[in-house]
Amino acid sequence: MTSPVFAPPRAAYLHVPFCAHRCGYCDFTLLAGRDDLAGDYLQALETELRSLERPREVDTLFFGGGTPTHLAPDHLARLLELAREWFRLAPGYEFSVEANPAGLTDEKLRLMADAGINRVSLGVQSFDEGLLKFLERDHREAEILDAVARLRERFENVSLDLIFALPDQTLDHWRETLRRAIELRPTHLSTYGLTFEKGTSFWSRREKGAIEQLSNELERDMYAAAMDDLAASGFEQYEISNFARPGFRCRHNQTYWRALPYFGFGPGAARYIDGRRESNHRSTTTWIKRVLGGQSGIAMSEELTPEHRAREAIVLGLRQVDGIRREEFRTLTGFDLDDLAKETITREVAAGRIEDFGDGIRITHQGRFFADPVMISFL
Ligand code: SF4
Fold this sequence. Notes:
Blueprint: E1 11-16, E2 18-19, E3 31-32, H1 38-49, E4 56-65, H2 73-86, E5 87-99, H3 106-114, E6 119-125, H4 129-134, H5 141-154, E7 157-164, H6 171-183, E8 188-193, H7 201-207, H8 216-232, E9 236-239, E10 242-244, H9 251-257, E11 263-265, E12 270-273, E13 276-280, H10 284-292, E14 298-303, H11 306-317, E15 324-325, H12 326-333, H13 337-350, E16 354-356, E17 360-363, H14 371-376
Parallel strand pairs: 1-4, 1-11, 2-3, 4-5, 5-6, 6-7, 7-8
Antiparallel strand pairs: 8-10, 9-10, 12-13, 13-14, 15-17, 16-17
Bound molecules: iron/sulfur cluster (SF4).
Iron/sulfur cluster (SF4) binds at residues 19, 22-23, 26, 28, 30, 65-67, 100, 123.
């Protein structure tokens, strides 16, 4: 049986690199305050999409950013038109867009719904005015409530993103954030601990002592509270940072965690096709210049060896709470999981961070607190 790795991708990602301004903790590929480049971006995107040669059928389509909904209505309409021109949505499809509460006008919501978008992931992060300001988000609590109410009129599937481990945040405060989020009845929640990425203003401020990072213990307690409180409210944790009501797991992201192939377009976008990983130039201006100048927008292209592919499949698969099934792993990678990683499995099982349930392995509740080192140990 041919590995699903070599099947045509059934998922596509389009990166939209625009935001009103750059939040202090963000190191994503984006241009802040350069809406004047949206036309060139769309032209470059169209050029890059033409490399598909013909429209492709996908099960999931995902607009990420940046803030896709920051685009002006005419540019958003053009983006949607391009996506629909090059991707045929299979029955039962999932079409997601990342959005921010600020500037989410009814006109944009209508365009999105008319184009078939059926899942919206809203960057809420916090309901606290002081913390929103600290994060340099350009929305306030009232805009979150208004955006969620209007989203719910058109979209059944609404996910909220939250950030925890913010300076001076207490455990009670975080639990209150969770409670407020649950009260809004989302279908899905993603929770991330604040990270300090090199090159961001938060990183330099922390280096200078202007921001004090929360202790690891408190951050762990907050993560534990998210797992407990969301489970108690009917959310299934299906990935290290992701929780869903039954039937609302993000299918697009599951493609990544299952190490299945996907298309990627736009600056900084990654793709995985025929066992080859590629990523585009992260600088939006470089990517636009190259693509419109008739050159490739690709910055990195790497053919993975079968073993490298298999090890990556372990690392990605362990992010999923359901873990990795030995039989599926063999079909996907051609490797026997135990031939490849018996020693590491034994060690992690003994440490209580991995559970071997016979048909496969999965990360334990305890292991989720140390997800990164556990996964790295399999590389
Ligand atoms: S809105 Fe999101 S993508 Fe844009 S700068 Fe802020 S964190 Fe980054």
